[in-house]
Amino acid sequence: MCVLRVLRDGPTYGYAIASRLERSGLGVIKGGTLYPLLARLEAAGWVEIEWRAGEGGPGRKFYALTPPGRDESHRQDQQWDAFIGAIQALSGTTLLGVTPGSSEGGHNAPH
Amino acid sequence: MHRTDDTGGAARAEAAEWWDTFGLELRLAGMSGAQIGDAIAVVEEHCADSGESPPEAFGDPADYAKALAADQVTSEHASDMRTSEVIGSIAGLLAPVLAGWAAWAGFAGEPVRITAGALVMIGALTLCVVVLVRHFEAVVRRLVGPGWYRPVLLALVPVALFSAMLLLLPQVLVELPWWPAAVAAGVAVIIASATLVTGGGGDPIRDPRREGADRQPRMRLASAAFFPLLTLLVVALVWLLHAVA
Known about the structure:
The structure holds two protein chains of two kinds.
Chain A: H1 2-8, E1 12-13, H2 14-26, H3 31-43, E2 47-52, E3 60-65, H4 67-91
Antiparallel strand pairs in A: 1-3, 2-3
Chain B: H1 9-28, H2 33-50, H3 54-58, H4 61-70, H5 83-108, E1 112-115, H6 116-134, H7 136-143, H8 149-168, E2 172-176, H9 178-197, H10 217-244
Helix pairs in contact in B: 1-4, 5-6, 5-9, 5-10, 6-7, 6-8, 9-10
């Protein structure tokens, strides 16, 4: 889901995807994890690849969302939102630990 | 192929071993030359960007190769070769044998004597070729591995078996003039060479960063000359044996 979300911002290459995910707080994404995932996304028809000539260097493999891939990314976002909503409803709190309808802010540790 | 390696002998050795294993595992997984070239270029690109070595960025090369192959179109088996490739391999095996027979008979002024042992040997060699190309991964995994005894057995056992076949089954089944064997050898050379040159006997690794680039152009040219040179070498050796005798 996260990789598809990155690609929604435009075509990019593998290391740039890994760096973006790391900066987002998901930790170091190794090539051994990322590229098989991208291969699965390509096999599913959600991602297409293109080798582009490099600027004075070797070429780069760029990944871009296909229209079905863009639809799938939005679908996964909706599934995630629904999941978060269900968790919130079960726990009676929002993600920030605030009980809906409460005037208090701050963090309340859920049990 | 340019590869990005860490400085230091140990790191370079580790990276070299990583590349060797990676390439072998990709082939055994049934990936095409184009897919292998793509996988190699991705590793090179990522390591150049990240500054990591292939082992650091991609971990165990066999595991990474299998993960890649699981999601890409591959042959059902690594040895899922076309019938033409099997025929080409058998032709390549028979060409020097037939040339040797024809040369021996021709230089001696005698007919080609095809013995029971020779026919059994040809049948056994053909069977070995078929098993190898149809079950390439399983055979290679058994033959490639640690231990000094593997290459020794691989070299000695077939020679011993085939020699035994020739010695223990000396009955002459048919006699032919030398020239049918020579013609058959020539046909076998043409079939084997054509299979290699047209790519039926090989699937060169292609660098996707260079459109249409073949990572092994010299290998393809060399392959076209291999069987003719091998056959000529056999004929020359037979001539030498006659000259010395």
